[in-house]
Structures are given as C-alpha cells and as structure tokens.
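Thread title: Can someone regenerate the structure for this chain?

I was given the following input by a collaborator and told the matching structure tokens would be attached. They weren't. Posting the sequence so someone can regenerate them.
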Amino acid sequence: MPTQTWMTDVRVDTFGGASPFGNRPLNQITIPGSHDAGCYTTTAFSALSRTQTQNIAQQLAGGIRYFDLRPRKNGIQFWTYHGPYYGGRLDGATGIIQDVANFLGGPAGAQELVVLNFSHFKEFTGSDHHRLIREILARLAAFLVPHNQDAFNLFNSTYYVVLSPPGIVAPTSRVAVLYDGALDQPLESLCPAGLPDGFFQLNPKYAVAAPNQTFLFDKYARRVTLGPMQIDQMAKLANRAAQVFNGDPNTQWPGAGGNWTNNAPYAIVPTGIQDTWHLFSWTLTPQIGIPPGSPLTAAQNVANPALEGWFTGNHWPTPAVPLLRGYDPLQDQRINVIYVDDYASQPHVCLMGGGVCPRAGYAAPVALCDFINRHFVAGAWPGWAGNY
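Best answer:
Regenerated them for you:
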C-alpha cells in the first residue's frame, strides 16, 4: 500500500527531479494527524467521544503520522479517552504502543517518522508516569529518535538527522514522543525530569533551554459549524508569528500561561516564533442537539469533504490580493500537521487530467501532505490544478 511508505517515497519526486525532503528541517514538512487518535471504539452512549473509525495500526497504514493520544488509567492498565468514555488500550501486547512498534518494524528500507503526542493525562500520579514511560521504552526503544533534547532541537533538525543516530547518516523509521504535549493542560508536576532519548517536552510549558526549545502551536477552533471553524483556523495560521504565549484564566498550572494569544492582525512581517510547529486543526466541536451532531458525523459530512477544496481553492489571502489562490507553502505560514477527525472518511478527489492520479486511494489529508512535501522546495510552486 503506497500510503504505508508515503514519506519514504517522497524522496523521489513524481513530477521530476530529486526531492530534498530528507534534508529539510521538520519545521518545513507537513504531515497528516488524527485528533483523539485512540478513540476509535464503539461504546454505549459515546457518540460525542468517538472521533476515529480505524484503529492505530490502520491509521498508520493509511498514512497518518501524528497521533493525539490521551492516557487514562483503567485499573492497572492504560487506555485512551475522550470525555467520560474510554477509547483503545495503550499498553499490552495488543495495545496502541505495540501497534506503533509493529508498523515501524517494517517494511525494510522504510524511512517514516511517527510523532506521538501524549497529553491530557487523567488521574495520573508520578508513579503512573513512570509506568507509562517504561511501557513506551519496553516496546519502542529500538525505534525512538536517537537524540536527547538536552543536545537536540527536534523541529529545527533535518528529517534524515532526526531518523539517524548522532554523527551517522543511516535513516530508518523512527518515533518521536512529545510528552505532556498540550499547552492548555495543567503542568504535570510529577512528570520525571531528564526524559529518555526520543522524548521531548514543549516550551514554554517546560523550561527547556535554548537552542533546544520545542514550540507547538496547537489551538483548535472550538466551533460547531464549518464557516466559523475555517475562519478561526485561517486567522490563527496567518497571525501565528505575531502571537506569543501568555496567561489563560482557564488554566490551572501555577505561575505559567495556558495558551497562545488571541488572533492578532495579519502580520506580513513575522515577529513571533519562526520555527513553531503548527497544527491546522480541521475539527469541529459538536454538541448534542446541534447539527451536525457527533464528531464522526461532523467529520464525515461537513469538515472533511471541504478540506481539499479549502487548500486547493481561492481561500488563501496575500497582502496585495485577498482570497486569490490556493495554499502556497512558499508564501503562506507553514502548516506542519493537517489535523482531523475520522481522517479516512473523505478520499482524495483527483484534479489531474487523463485519469492518472498518483494519490488515488489516499485519504484527503494524506494526499495533501504528499503533494505539498513533493513540490514546495523542489522548484517553483506549481499550483494545484493539473498537478494534484
């Protein structure tokens, strides 16, 4: 299945010329991500908790590379959760962490990067953090990014360097763990200091010293309907470089902030953090009794069918001419994660003539990422029509 190795395959540009993808820093790549990735199980009365229809093994095979995982204790086991309901099991021989290990162990020659963001820990103590970290190490040690944050900047490092041991260019499939990677959640004061290689913490939530700071702009829209969600996410993207992290009255962690500042005027000259990884959160926040209903219904019928058209159509402003063109990563603020519910519900709609489409069968966010990564550095941006 091509989607299983789509990042490996970007090394050869389908439309001519060698792609410099492997020599590009992570803050210049775009990957597809799944929101509440572990909440794929069907549970009674869980309509507002289920966000995916495929398990993690299926999501990996389908091309997803960023996973939002929210751990909760269930007895002595670890599960994912969303709201009051449980999703899939994290630990154990058939759990999510083992699914990631199975994927990274094959096929031979693959050079895929998976990012796991563990956050929203429910009812955790310090010993629970230690147990979960030990479980991750036990199953993923052979595949963790072979670098420690004390001497390494994850998002500023090139793709091949991230996948290779220090001083050796021998890239193989790897996983990076963002531990406690939600800035709007309370600080995990019991989270252990000095995390193992392959684990990374976010500034400014954790005081990682420069130059190894890792910044993640993750600010979903909290909108029920499509139009306001689109406007909100576009504003956040356009204004990201002008924003700073500050206090949020909803946060509970002492003496820190809780989120990025509200949307500011469009900044032609960026003034904020330049190497922030940006999650473009194409997700709705449904409520009972308010259309379109559950997260799955909202993704399947409203958000995901509009995703490709938003990237490829005339929705992207320039300083001179508003709403003139499709997304152009050479001009626009960089998107690093296209972040969705039920990622596979909308297949790629081919715009190419002649019935030949290299991304046939890809889910829409995977197809978008594949195209963006192949083209935005290899040459002048070709645009979408006739190339997608």
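The first strand starts at residue 31 and ends at 34.
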